[in-house]
Amino acid sequence: MSSYGMPKQRILVAGGAGFLGTRLCEVLLDQGHEVICVDNFITGRHENTERFMNNSRYSVLHHDIINPISLDVNPTQIYNLACAASPPHYQADPIHTLRTCVEGSLNLLELGKRSGARVLLASTSEVYGDPQVHPQSESYRGNVNSVGVRSCYDEGKRCAETLFSDYGRQKQVVIKIARIFNTYGPGMSETDGRVVSNFICQALRGEDLTVYGDGTQTRSLCYVDDMIDGLMRLMNSPESFKGPVNLGNPQEVTVLQLAELVRQLTKADAGVEFKPLPADDPTRRCPDIQLAHRHLAWQPTTHLTTGLLRTIAYFRELLQASSQEAASRPTDIHNDIARSL
Ligand code: NAD
Ligand code: UDP
After folding, report:
1. Measuring CA to CA, which residue among 331, 250, 337 is closest to residue 292?
2. Which residues line ligand 2 (CB under 6 A)?
3. CA-CA-CA-CA torsion for 281, 286, 291, 297, nearest 10 degrees?
4. Within a domain: 339
């Protein structure tokens, strides 16, 4: 990945222990930057931070961004990736999700104002709700339910976009807004609950793939490294380009097509189990990425099949390692026998 010719920076990554955040930290460290990961570990994993602990340019602050943040040093860039992104996780505590989006953004923008850092928001395609325009361009205002089960996330991110825009206008903070479309890849957690990780883990375990609804709803899936490249290009773009800008892969597939592809690529002996469609599940989603192409010279380069094969290899190894670990652990019966001796 290019280092965009930038001098070494002190970069705060909020949500740095999550799926995208961990990969971002890794790339930033590889490029020689100093990285401060801020995370409350609500969906992030400690293994994701432990792997960098021997790097003197990396530090972790266990902190919930709904609380104000103060540091001994001034960051030069702040990525706000902190927010559970998988529907079952962000819906588990919707009030905390909303507070994370709104109060968390406010606290990071305040830090940006004090330190002079530019601040990037990881917003989402969910700001378009269940879109009535295809593909979605940034000028589309969306079709969002303000009182549904997804609203904590959709409306939270919409409000965060407003806060970012106002801090840009009123407080002269250099802001950047990325609207991220569904992103997948190695590094996802097996308990993440999103469609790619669910399908791959189910297929590798020989279980039926759980398709919600009739599977005709679409998503456009972007590979993680393409997304990180897009986010970094946006962060390092000229001050005048603030976004919002769509980042995603315009290759649109139905959920059923994705299930079939995962079954083929894993060579799994698994069927499909239809389950009820969650409330407000968007029917179609596909990014128009002309703006990103024009301003950031960015477009994804990883084909879905290539990205899925890499993700399958990653999960195969992860599941094997966890089953070996389980096998080497004494069972409860063994423990009981050991205790009775
Ligand atoms: P993730 O759930 O894997 O990571 C989110 C991280 O934020 C976790 O480490 C979590 O512990 C941390 N976090 C959550 N609330 C926090 C809080 N209040 N304080 C501190 N840390 C907190 O999700 P991800 O896929 O890595 O997504 C990262 C960001 O990108 C999120 O903001 C998400 O909304 C956005 N996004 C992701 C996608 C995608 O497909 N991956 C799509 C659209 C938007
Ligand atoms: N989905 C599915 N089976 C699963 C998980 C998700 O069919 O095991 C569907 C879900 O209903 C949605 C799509 O896949 O239509 C993408 O879901 P995901 O949770 O990955 O992301 P989001 O809904 O936020 O786009």
Report:
1. 250
2. 86-87, 182, 194-195, 198, 210-212, 217, 219, 255, 278, 281
3. 120
4. no
pLDDT tens across 95-142, in order?
A: 999 999 999 999 999 999 999 999 999 999 999 999 999 999 999 999
pLDDT band at 334 (very low <50, low <70, confident <90, very high): very low
Largest CA distance in the chain: 73
- 213-252 per-residue burial string, b: 16 or more CB within 10 A, e: under 16: eebebbbbbbbbbbbbbbbbbbbbbeeeebbbbbbbbbeb
Q: What is the DSSP letter of 242?
A: -
Say how many domains are in the chain.
1
Token pair recorded at residue 89: 């996780």
Q: What is the pTM of this model?
A: 0.95
Place of tokens 């389980």: 326
For ligand 2, what atom is nearest to the CA of residue 85? 24
Instruction: Tell me, yes or no, whether 180 lies in a domain.
Output: yes
Q: Which ligand is nearest to the CA of 185?
A: 1
Q: Is the CB of 9 under 6 A from ligand 1?
A: no
Determine whether 184 is an active site residue. Answer: no
CATH code: domain of residue 173: 3.40.50.720
Ligand 2 atom with the smallest distance to the CA of 194 is 20
